[in-house]
Amino acid sequence: MKQILVSLLKENGFKECPIESELHQMCNGLILQRDWAKETDVVWYGKHTETYSVRVFVNQNSGICHVSYFHCGRECKDRWYDTVGKRTYNAIVETASNAGFEF
Length: 103
Prior knowledge:
This protein has helices at about 5-10, 20-25, 85-100; strands at about 15, 30-40, 45-60, 65-70, 75-80. It is of the alpha+beta class. The two termini are about 20 Å apart.
């Protein structure tokens, strides 16, 4: 059950990031991240590159995870999930889709 979220995220373009925190390493932590970018037309400005990132920290010892969402470099949402299964994956996909970025 604990590897379902990790495998689903890796299959959909998430890359593993190095863990620098000793605390995260002690709990057998794993950080996965994916970035999106798209160009949009802005009135009076022209073309603008809009970015979106999702960073997922998975505590593999306890089976919980923390997800942070970044829009144009600023954190716009973060959430703790007490499961690392398909339900959490679906919530991540839905949040990114609502922001206008497709998996």
